Amino acid sequence: MILSNTLCRLPRQSQAVVALLCLWLAACSAPVKKTDIDAAAPLPSYSLETVQALLLEARVAESPRKEQLLIKSAEQLYLLGDQDWARNLLGSIEPDRLPPEDLWIYTRQYSDLLLEQEAYFLAQSVLMNPQLTAQWELMPKATYVDLRLRRAELLAKLGETAQSVQEYIALDHANLPAEQQSQNQDALWQTLMNQPHEQLQALARLSDDREQQGWYQLAALSKNNQHQLESQLRGVDDWLMRWPGHPAANRLPRDLQLLRQLIEEKPQHVALLLPVSGKLGRAGRAIRDGFFAAHYQSVQAGSPAGRISLYDTNLGDVQSLYQQAVDAGAELIIGPLDKDKVAELALMPALPVPTLALNRIEQPAGLLPTQNLVQFGLAAEDEARQAAQRAWIEGHRLAMVVAVDASWADRSALAFINEWQTLGGTVVEYSKFTGKADYSKVVQRGLLIDHSNQRAANVRNILGRSMEFEPRRRQDIDMIFVTALPNQARQLKPTLKFHQASDIPVFATSHVYAGEPDAKLDSDLNGIRFSTLPWIFDQQSEEKKAIERFSNDPAFNRLYAMGVDAYHLYPRLRQLREIPNATVFGATGNLQLTPEGHIQREQMWAQIRRGLAQPLPTVISNEAKLSGS
Q1: Nearest 5°: phi and psi at 267?
Q2: CB atoms near residue 154 (< 10 Å)
Q3: CDD domains per the record (predicted)?
C-alpha cells in the first residue's frame, strides 16, 4: 500500500510548515506568481523540508501536476506522523482532475487514512467514486484486487450486503490464486452469515443476478437450519442438486463441508453437571429447562435422541461427579455452573472428554488453557466492552461512567473503561451510586452542577443580594455508560433529564431491561441503548415457545437462552475450533471460540422508545454519519 502501517512518529512540523499548510488549504486555488524552486541539493526523505518544498511547488503548478504534488505531500505528512494534515490536504483535492493512475493512488492513500480514523462514510464516498468504477479494466490486477477488496469489506461493515456481495463476486472472477480465492469466498460467506435469515430470503427474491441468488439461497437455508445439523445437511444436499456449477457448489463454505463429520461425531451420551438444588438451584434449573427445550425440538426435527444424564453439583464434589459421569460413558460434559467449580476443572492440565463449562474464569498466570475445556459464560464484562465499541463507532469520545454499588457493576465499569481507553476515548468522570436516593447527588457531582451552584452562591455573597440563576452542566461529555438494574436505571434517566443532560446518549448492559414489555413502567428508560439477547426479540423460536408454556420466568431469560445455546454449541465445537471466525448464531448472541478456549459473545442492540424495547441495526448507525465519521 501507499501508506505504511508501521510508522515512526517524528516531531511535528515547524511553524513555517504549519503556516504554509494553512495558507494552502485556505486559498489553494488562488493564482500565485511563479517562483524558482531551488532543487540543486536533494532533500532528505520524509522531512519537513521536503513537505515545504512540495507545497511551494504545488502553489504554482498546473493540474494535474498540482494534485500529484499534494498527494506526495500528504504521503510525507502521514509518514511524519501527522495524519490530520495529510487528511486535510487530500480532502482539498478534486479527484475529477486526476488522470487514472493518480486517481488510483489518491483513492488508496485517502481511503487508508479515512479507514484508519474510522471515517467510514467518507471512505465509502471515496471508494465508490463512479469515475473509479469506470476504470476497472485499465487497472493493474493488484490495484484492481486491492480496491475492490476495500470496497467489499467496507460495504459489509456498513451493512450494504448486496453491494458487498457484488464486490466479492467480482473478485471471485478475477482469476485469483487458489488460496486468495478461498479467502475471498470465506469473506463473502461470513458477510452473508452475518445477516438475518429474513434479509437473506428477501435478497434472494429481489436479486436478478443468478450467481448472487445462489449465494443468498445457500446462506438462507444454512442460517435457517443452523441449530439442526441433520436438517442443515439435507438442505445443503438439495441446494447442490439445484445449483450445479455454482462457485459455492465447486467449493462449499468450510462450515458446510464439515457437516457430515459433525453429525457422525456428535456425542450420543451427554452429562449435565448443574446445581438443581441449593442457592444456585433456580439458575441451574433454568439452564436445564432451556437445554431440554432445545433437545426436544431437535428430536422432533429428526435428530437422534441420544442419552442425557443430569448430576446435581450441589450434592457432591465436582471432580467426583465429573469422574462418575465419565465412568458412566458420557462422551461430553456440560457444566458446571458455579465459578469455583469451573476453576477446579481449569486447574487440571487436561480433561478426559470434551467439556463445556457454563461459566468463565481468568486463566491463572503461567498456566496453559486446560485441554478439552471450553468456557461459556454470560459475563457482564463482555457486554461492557461491546458498549464501548458501539459508542466509539457512533462517534463518541468523551465518556461519563455511572455504576451501581455492586461487584458485577464494578467489573462492567472497569471493562468499559479499559476498552474505551484502548480505543482512544477519554473517561471524563466515573461515579457510583448506592441506589438509596442518592441519584441526584451523584449526577450533580458527575455533571459538575454542584460546582455551578457553588459559583452562584459565591456571586450572591459578593453582591449581597439574591439573583436569578440557572445551573449549567459540564459540556465535555458526549456519552454516558450505565451499569444498573431496571429499577435503578428508571430513577437515573429522569434525574439526567432534570439536570439538563437528556441530550447525552446513554449506553447500558442488558441488565437495564427486565425482559418483559411494560411501556408504562419503562417510559423512564426512554432513549437508553443497551446490548441484549436475540432471545428477547425472537418470536419464532420453538424453544422459547416451549419455555413460555411450561416454566417461563422473565427474570431467568438469560439462563433459558444459555441452556438453549449450550445444546446447540456442543456438536459444533470442532467447527468453531478449526474454522477462523466460525460463528454460531445463538439465543445469547453471535458465538465464537477464542484461542484461549472461551466462547466470545456479540449481542444485538436495542433502544427503549415510548417505553418499549426495539431492536437497533448491528451496523454503523446514521448517527455516526451525522457526527462526522
Answers
A1: -60, 135
A2: 23
A3: PBP1_YraM_LppC_lipoprotein-like
CA distances, 521 to each of 218, 486, 535, 611 (Å): 43, 10, 21, 7
pLDDT digits (tens, 9 = 90+) for 500-516: 667 889 999 999 999 88
Mean pLDDT of the chain: 85
Spell out the alpha helix ranges (H) of 225-316.
229-242, 247-250, 254-257, 259-265, 281-300
Sign of CA pseudo-dihedral 602, 608, 611, 613: negative
Q: Report d(CA 297, CA 267) in Å as an integer.
A: 17
CA 81 to chain centre: 28
Interatomic CA distance for residues 94 and 92, integer angstroms: 7
What mean pLDDT is predicted for residues 42-67? 79
Which residues fall within 8 angstroms of residue 562, CB to CB, at 6 or more apart?
Answer: 287, 290, 358, 376, 378, 587, 588
Residue with cell 455508560: 481
CB contact at 8 A, 402 and 433: yes
Q: Which H/E stretch holds residue 325?
A: helix 318-327
Residues 183 and 260 in one domain: no
Residues 6+ apart with CB under 8 A from 211: 169, 246, 247
Rg (CA), the chain: 29
Residue 8 lies in a domain: no
Residue 40: which residues within 8 A CB-CB, separation 6 or more? none
pLDDT band at 301 (very low <50, low <70, confident <90, very high): confident
CA distance 195 to 202: 11
| Residues 172 and 289 placed together within one structural domain of the fold | no
Statement: the pTM of the whole predicted model exceeds 0.85: no
For residue 22, being part of any structural domain is answered with: yes
Are 501 and 447 within 8 A, CB to CB?
Answer: yes
Domain hosting residue 223, numbered range? 200-265
Q: Which of 142, 168, 199 is the last residue of a domain?
A: 199
Amino acid letter for position 377: G
Strands (DSSP E) contained in 122-226 are none
Tell me which DSSP letter residue 598 carries: B
Count how many Cα atoms sit within 13 Å of the Cα of residue 271 in the half-sphere of its side chain. 22
Question: Is 568 among the domain residues?
Answer: no
Question: Taking residues 336-360, what's their average pLDDT?
Answer: 94
Closest CA to 416 of 406, 440, 407, 426: 426
CA distance 155 to 170: 14
SS3 399: strand
Q: Exposed/middle/buried for 362, CB within 10 Å: 0-12, 13-18, 19+?
A: exposed
Listed in sequence order, the residues at least 6 apart from 548 whose beta carbon sits closer than 8 Å to its beta carbon are none
Kindly state the greatest CA–CA separation across the chain: 92
Which residues, including other chains, have CB under 8 Å from residue 623's CB and lie 6 or more apart?
394, 395
Domain final position from 249, 265, 281? 265
Name the grid cell of 165: 456481495
Q: Which residue has the higher pLDDT, 469 or 119?
A: 119
Residue 181, all three cell numbers: 480465492
DSSP summary character for residue 516: S
Residue 270 CB partners (closer than 8 Å, separation 6+): 306, 307, 308, 309, 330, 331, 332, 333, 334, 570
- Residue 612: strand pairing partners: 609
| Assigned domain for 615 exists | yes
Which own/partner contact pairs does 137-142 have at CB distance under 8 Å and 24+ positions apart? 138/100, 139/100, 139/104, 141/174
